[in-house]
Amino acid sequence: MLFTQILGYTAGAITSLTFLPQVIKTWKEKSAKDVSLTMFVVAASNEVLWIIYGILQNDWVIILTNVCVLAMSLVMIFLKLKYNTKKEVKQ
Amino acid sequence: MLFTQILGYTAGAITSLTFLPQVIKTWKEKSAKDVSLTMFVVAASNEVLWIIYGILQNDWVIILTNVCVLAMSLVMIFLKLKYNTKKEVKQ
Question: Which domains does chain A have, with CATH numbers?
Answer without folding.
Answer: 2-90 (1.20.1280.290)
